[in-house]
Amino acid sequence: MSKLLAATRILPRRFYGAETTTVARSLIGCVLRHGETSGMIVETEAYLRDGDRASHFWRGITPRTKVIFGPPGHAYVYFVYGMHECFNVVTEPDGVPGAVLIRAIEPLTGLAKMATRRYGSRDGIPSLHALTNGPAKLAEALAITRAHNGCRLDQGALTIRQWRSSEPIEIDITTRIGVSHSEDLPLRYVWKLNPFVSRQAIHRSADPSLF
DNA sequence: CAATAGATCATCT
DNA sequence: GATGATCTATTGC
């Protein structure tokens, strides 16, 4: 076991029972690990109970959203676009819905395995950051599937660990990616200037030279 | 670099 | 029957 992983400790269940926005922000800098593969969380999005039409659960409990209404600290994994799976953590107390989508990680261990899962046995990967800079990309790289839906994150093969960073992490808050409702809510948390985020936290402008 | 098309199916109306 | 918390390849400037 590497020193890197030995220095981490699994987040307790109560960590996830807090407000969804707090959990989303606090997860930045933590380590998501599945077996030999792991990465540092650099980008998250909060999905809320109140006033958030972009969430999967704003209409209430369905077979798919059932786990989101359950106790915190469990995985919510959903399938979209006929081919992609994305990983969330369930937040808020039991009975209160809330979820945080993990949008990007910085690869830490098991790089070769991740590359094989993403690109097969062909040699050479496009780039390191392209390995895990998107919710469906990191799920594939870490082999997180719908089979993990509802599993606990404080025990078993799929865990999230705290990381003692020597320096405080600078976090940018932006609107969320790819949503077509509640687009203006500032619920995306990105590690400022980290090259492994899915998109820069830079605003778009008609004049790119302004940036 | 930016914009767009196509892949492809579970979920809910 | 429409839509989607996406990704990749391709086209266009």
Looking at this protein, list some descriptive labels.
single chain, 211 residues, alpha+beta, 9-stranded antiparallel β-sheet, globular, DNA-binding
Order of H and E elements: HEHHEEEEEHHEEE
Q: How many strand units? A: 9
Work out the helicity level: 10-25%
Q: Sum up the overall morphology in one term.
A: globular
- Summed up, the helix count is 5
Give the integer mean of the pLDDT values: 91
What does this structure look like?
- The chain has 211 residues and is an alpha+beta fold.
- It is 15% helix and 26% strand.
- It has 5 helices and 9 strands, in the order αβααβββββααβββ.
- The chain has helices at 3-6, 13-16, 20-26, 111-119, 135-141; strands at residues 9-10, 31-34, 37-47, 75-80, 84-90, 99-109, 158-162, 171-174, 188-191.
- Strands 1, 2, 3, 4, 5, 6, 7, 8 and 9 form a 9-stranded antiparallel beta sheet that branches.
- It binds a DNA duplex (13 and 13 nucleotides) through strand 4, strand 5, strand 6 and helix 5.
